Amino acid sequence: MPEKVLIYSRFPKAMMVRIGQRYDLMDAAGQPPSEKFTLDQLAAVRAMITAGGTPLGVAMMDQMPALQAIVCYGTGYDGVDLAAAASRKIAVGNSPGANSSSVADLAMTLMLAVTRRLLPADAYVRSGSWSSAKPSPLMKPQPGNPGRRIGVYGMGAIGRKIAARAAAFDMDVAYYSRSRHDVPWRYVSTLEALVDWCSVLMIAVRAGADTHHAIDAEMLRKLGPDGYVVNISRGSVIDQQALIAALADNTIAGAALDVYEKEPHAPDALTAFPNVVLTPHIGGHTVESHLAMQDCVIANLDAFFAGKPLPYPVS
Amino acid sequence: MPEKVLIYSRFPKAMMVRIGQRYDLMDAAGQPPSEKFTLDQLAAVRAMITAGGTPLGVAMMDQMPALQAIVCYGTGYDGVDLAAAASRKIAVGNSPGANSSSVADLAMTLMLAVTRRLLPADAYVRSGSWSSAKPSPLMKPQPGNPGRRIGVYGMGAIGRKIAARAAAFDMDVAYYSRSRHDVPWRYVSTLEALVDWCSVLMIAVRAGADTHHAIDAEMLRKLGPDGYVVNISRGSVIDQQALIAALADNTIAGAALDVYEKEPHAPDALTAFPNVVLTPHIGGHTVESHLAMQDCVIANLDAFFAGKPLPYPVS
Predict the structure, then answer these.
(1) Do B278 and A102 touch (CB under 8 A)?
(2) CATH class of B4-98+287-305
(3) Reported ipTM
(4) Among residues A263, A265, A288, A290, which one is catalytic?
(5) Is B263 one of the annotated active-site residues of the chain?
(6) pTM
(7) Which of A181, A240, B122, B286 gives a 20 to 30 Å CA spacing to B8?
(8) What are phi and psi of B152, to 5 degrees?
(9) Are the C-beta atoms of B42 and B64 separated by less than 8 Å?
(10) Nearest CA to A183 among A143, A149, A154?
(11) Is A263 an active-site residue?
């Protein structure tokens, strides 16, 4: 008899095929588990899989008194109430670094696309405006990458890969992080100074209470009218209303986002801008990245059910 | 009295402002010069500016018996009948390397966007399909960059910059060129073998009679159903009808094009595909690249009118 594992967030079915070959999955598909399963069923659950960004607090844990393992699919775990889990002796695991190339590559894709106006350019060709020589204010030449100042906020596995890729484009790379790292990039000791200095701000910081709305209206003013912000971390790091206002009055030049304050939802005020690129939280969404994340999830679950410590614990 | 210079191709006015401060520009704006100017006016023209891809042959040269300098704005000069120019002792100049970073960066932008399905992803968010959880076959996870085989066709200034950038994405880089270069990438001795090997084909070769339709139906079959082709060189290098057929029957996975067989014109059959990214020949279209190209054009014109050899001659 395979062990039962609750799936808490909504995941595409294809992502769970390999895990489903080893475990008996109870898929709540992003709905309140108590609506899909009986209290007795939930009371028996010892392990669950969640997307790290999905809120998972005391109320949910209280419905599952036997819960001993929360396994996050992905690197993030900001939705999990770690204190509540610790007090219940629930182990929390994630998939560290498994998707860092995939996320860093999407960050670069977004940066290049928004600064080069790729979407308006493609639309200009497809609409026939190019062949009919229609003028297009959006097609004005933009500054290029060599010498452009890119500020990386956060220097974990993803931030390092972003920095290395940006350097290959001859960009001038600096970073801010709580502490200095052993990396060849310039360290800036405050986020304000980084934002003041750079013209592309890359948000690659781990989300948490201390980073909530770290990029607010004042920071966006510092970024300035030639500045772009790219976010592949978590929507909570940017004050989204302030971002929309900054885009509306040209306080900044543009934005490229893979994450939003409320997912899956990008407000209409955001989707109306031509100078933004918006992707549906697909940072870790490559074939290899999913396989690597599934490897971590399976390793965490296998160890847990064998009575061993999680090989990929959240520290 | 500033010297008169004919502008032969259609250029945005902003691109000619600096040159117009030094020379008296006769702007044919891409139309036959004889329709805009009298035969006497044309007979007096000693120098002209053209986009290298615009056809410029014997008939045009015959209308300008005093012509002694053809100055290409950009690196290309494939439209210029070099033999006819040589026989008339007309010097031909270009802007070598001035836009190589800009073009290489667009090549990477196109490659990342098409392989990561950036346009369908943005459309998925903007249309509201994401928030309403609509299934989207286009949003299936795609292979990522690490280990992906990228074949660079042509190893000039642009090819080298593409290779260096691709290596920073942990891609496996190889190239084909008429001769081996002193570069750290694997050399493949035939174009067929390169196309067979790679899953992303980057066309960065200088266009000419020998590269015309080098990528034909057979090559696209070799590229295969997981393969992408990116072209930032010249439209003539790809058999565009064969490409459209290969996209229509999934012989290849996708294409990203900045250049077309007939510009400014991307056929409807091409613009209808969701798995292509199309830009309006903006490879060299950044602020710094235009300044650098204008510097070359001005240096070539200044030298010519001072009776000196062109500093940036086409060799």
Answers:
(1) no
(2) alpha beta
(3) 0.94
(4) A263
(5) yes
(6) 0.94
(7) B286
(8) -100, 120
(9) yes
(10) A154
(11) yes
